[in-house]
Amino acid sequence: MFKIGIGFDVHRFAEGRRCVIGGVDIPHSKGLLGHSDADVLTHAICDALLGAAGLGDIGTHFPDNNPKFKDINSQVLLGQVKEEITKEGFKIENIDSIVMAEKPKINPHRAEMKTTLSKTLEIEEAKIGIKATTTEKLGFVGREEGIAAQAVALLSKVFVLLFFVSIHALAVNPDSLLKCSAKYFGDKHEFKFDFQMLSRSSGTGGETQRRGTLITGGKDRFTLTMPDMQIYSDGTNLWQYNPLQKQVLIKLLSDLENKLYPSEVLFRYLGTTAISVKPELWKGSMVHALTLDPSKYKDQFKAMEVWLSPKDCSPLRLYTIDNIGNDTWYSIENLSKGSFPESTFKFKAPAGTDEIDMR
Ligand SMILES: [Zn+2]
Question: What's this model's pTM, rounded to 2 decimal places?
Fold first, then answer.
């Protein structure tokens, strides 16, 4: 679950005050006036965090008539806010912010602000955005009467993960998950699903993405449909149809050099053994991520992984690293069991198709 919050704060300039922004004391001719150290950015972030967690605002938590908070370092307040939201089970996903000031210049201090805030909040610096702008000499900011700051924060609830991790440690055995997955498929292996394949080349780092639909009929029968290629196999013959060139290559399935038929892509993990299992987040739900022993496919892969649905052990993602180091993610969507007539796996050439029979 995600929650978003917004915060806004303004402090006016005054003589004889420090100018603290984002926890950094910035040398300037004037400082910011306020009950605390008047750290305008930190206050905006406090309000964004409290708002996202549904915990009110900074004024109710740290009233400005309480002498306890007189001239207090706002990092202390931010630390307390962090504690409050953590108690509620929230985790900070990221924070973004804007400081609006004509002077002093914010940019030279931005890195230090990020470091300070990330230490207080105990999150990575990369999760904190700080931008600075002037207001083109317009308004109170433009007349250098004060500084304004705005922040947004995104929080997520973490108890689901903790719960899942704890039951995981107790109840989940990687081998029984694989058995459960084999049970899901049964022995008919007649399925239809959409897939998305994302490959990254180890050499160039280049990424290839493909989408398609695969129907499997068991016994090496399959129909693979992609935008630029359709492949049919009836278990004996293989048709490779290029819809753009209107050309079909017909081969014997047994002549294929690569014995890894697409129908196997889905099922090959079932022939391996699972080494370990850990929970992973996939499309907002916790799933079982199994690390597999790739030795059965050692000619092709040096690493294999499958992510299984905790509901029925059906596969959601497959991951492989081949022996050259290229890695591939296969995401499976809309997986359904079916019973497909023999004609599903035979190619019917549209009129005007150029047939090249290589059998
Ligand atoms: Zn304030």
Answer: 0.53
